[in-house]
Amino acid sequence: MELSSWDDYPVHQAAELIAHPATSDRNFYDRYYFNLHPSSGEFSAIFGFGEYPNLGVKDAFIDVRRGDRQHIVRSSGPLLDRADTSVGPFRVEVVEPLRSLRVIVEESEYSVAMDVTFTGSTPAIAEPRQFIRVKGKVVFDTQRLAQTGTWAGTLEVGGEEITISPEHCRGPRDRSWGVRPVGEPESDGIRQGELVLPGMWNYYPMQFEDHSIFFICHEDDDGVRRLEQSERVWSDPSRPIEQLGRAEHLHHFEPGTRVLTGSVLTFPDAGIEVECTSLLANFISVGTGYGIDADWRHGMYHGTETITQGMVLSVEEIRGLAQYGIVDHVARFSYDDHVGYGLLEHGFFGPFRRYGMTDGGMGAPGD
What we know:
Layout: E1 28-36, E2 43-52, E3 57-66, E4 69-78, E5 86-87, E6 90-96, E7 100-105, E8 112-120, E9 125-126, E10 130-134, E11 137-157, E12 160-164, E13 170-179, E14 199-207, E15 211-219, E16 225-234, E17 242-243, E18 248-253, E19 260-267, E20 272-282, E21 307-314, H1 315-322, E22 327-335, E23 338-349
Antiparallel strand pairs: 1-2, 1-13, 2-3, 3-4, 4-21, 5-6, 6-7, 7-8, 8-11, 9-11, 10-11, 11-12, 11-13, 14-15, 14-23, 15-16, 16-17, 18-19, 19-20, 20-22, 22-23
C-alpha cells in the first residue's frame, strides 16, 4: 500500500503511513458493530464492518432474525484505502463523530437491504481495555468505545419493508480496534488445545429512559475475572459516569444448552438488582464471520475481487452449533421503576462449572 486519503489528515500515531498499523501483528483489526431492535422480540438486526490492514482485507455483514429465520448478507474485498468504509453493497458513514452514523446495505439479489441512521442517546464511552496473553503470545489487546442510541430509516427483509423509527427502534453500537484472532486459522504451536477466550463472556449494554448501564464480565472457570465493567451513563453529558462496583450474576439457561433465557445482575455497592429477560436470540456465530464457519471468518481472504453472498438460515437448524459461539439477544431490563431494552450477549467456552458445564460440550442443566 502507498499513500491513501487518510494520510492527508493529522491522525498518525506512528512513523508509518495510515495503511500500516504501529504493530505488524497479522491479527490487527479495526471494526464497527451495530445492534438494532424495536424494543421487542419482533426482529433483531446486527451488522458490522471491519478492516484488517495487515491481511489486506475488509468485510461486512448484516444478520436479521425475524421469526424462525435469520437473513444474512456478507461481503469481502481487498483493502486499498482505510478511509473507504464500504465493501460490496455495504457502506458506513460517520455523520457526526461520536454522535451519529449512517449504515447502508444497497438492494441486491439477496433478502436484506437497509438505510438507517444511528443517533446517540448517551455520550460515547471508552470501555476497559482487554488484554490476554497465552503462553507467550498476545491473543487479545483491544480497545473499544460504546454508545446507546436510536435508529431511523428503513429495513427490508424478505421483500417486506419495515419503517425504523427512533420512537421504538434502539440499540447499542461499538467500535473496537487492536489485536484479536482474525482471518484464516494460525498454527497454535505450544498453545495446542488452549481456548482463545475461555470461560464466560457477558456483554449487556442496557438502555433506559434517561441513562444506560454497561456491564461486561469475562470470567474464567475458576472464578477469576479478566475483564469487568459496571457503569451507569446518563443521557445528560454534564452528569458524571457512575461506577456501580463489582457485579454478581445469576444466569438462567434453556435446559441442556448454553443459551440463556435471562439473568439477574446484582450490584451490591450501588444497591441495584437488574432483571434481564431474553426476548429474541440471534445466533450470529453462524454465517457472519464470528468464528464457527470454516469458509467465512472476519478478515479471511477471498481473492482479489469483492464477493457478496446471501443466505436464509433456519434458527432451529443452526442453534445447536451456534450455542458454542457468541449469542446476541434482544432483551428487556428492569430495576426499581426503570424498564429498558438492549443487548444481552453471552458466550460460554470450554467448561464453566458454576453452571454445571463440566466440559466444553456439555450444556447447563437448567433451573
